Amino acid sequence: MSTEGLPKWLDPVVRAAQTVEPHQLSRFLPPENGGRQSAVLVLFGQGARGPELLLMERAGTLRSHAGQPSFPGGALDPEDGDPEGSGPVRAALREAQEETGLDPAGVQVFGVLPRLYIPVSGFVVTPVLGWWREPSPVGAVDQAETARVFTVPVADLTDPAHRVTARHPRGHTGPAFLVESALVWGFTAGVIDRLLHFAGWEIPWDRTKQVPLDRSA
Questions:
Q1: Is the full-model pTM beyond 0.90?
Q2: Which domain holds residue 99?
Q3: Taking Cα atoms as reference points, which of 148, 79, 88 lies closest to residue 113?
């Protein structure tokens, strides 16, 4: 990992990654034992409209998190190595390449967030932060797994007009984003929300504006 040569606008994200505590990111923290180790790539790039994030939409036929927008990522393989060490970085880059066609050689990893937990699927997730130093073409590699790959300007994510609260049929709520013809919610939206907050990029928004999720969520 290296922070050398990063654009200045990423400085707040670097500082946040170095200081944020697990409980400041999510109320769902990994159990002492169990859970499937995994990693996601939170990739920042420089687009036509300024800073942007790379996201993908999972295929609607998948057993877990079907149809949801998400960061590229997946479970650690044995060859990735220690989940407490560099394993999550290798897994995040490998999965991003497999899902989006991204060239890992063009990604500069500059930070790793604390491990978080997704209770519904039992995944223990390490968010890996990257700078898309040398952008490469991306797209859905396998339509059985990935419906589409897209980038979202950070300006759209911070725009209060695009921010809502998602309400699950079971009653719990969480931050969400209406961007690029998609509703980004759940774990992915939670990480984005916290990054915007701790980087100082958050703009006050109407938290009472709710969007109901359907029962398949």
A1: yes
A2: 8-19+28-212
A3: 88
